[in-house]
User: Fold this.
Amino acid sequence: MKIAGMLIVVASLVTAWIVIPLFQDKLGPHLNAGRWVVLWLGAEVGLTVMLAIYGAVIVGCHRWDLHNGISALVYGITTAGMILVLLAGRIASCGLCTLRSGHGGRSSSMVARAASLS
Assistant:
């Protein structure tokens, strides 16, 4: 599992530094942000694959108290992170303005309109 996780991390690095620049014309000034998104997602997936064996051992030993406690903690941290990102988005809503002006689609204008109401 460690090798598979490392391969995923290496693949995300290659994708971020070689493949993402091929989309320079579509990403424009957001190229660096796209690169960071690919890096973070690749690191997260690789780390999840590398550490999956430990969760399997806990489940295999029928330690449901530990399994449920760890799951609750991870979901709590994930939820707190999402709330922080949403609050940060409210403060810096320039991304929604860019989304609305850049694409002009119905869904993006609806999101921008909803953001302006809050």
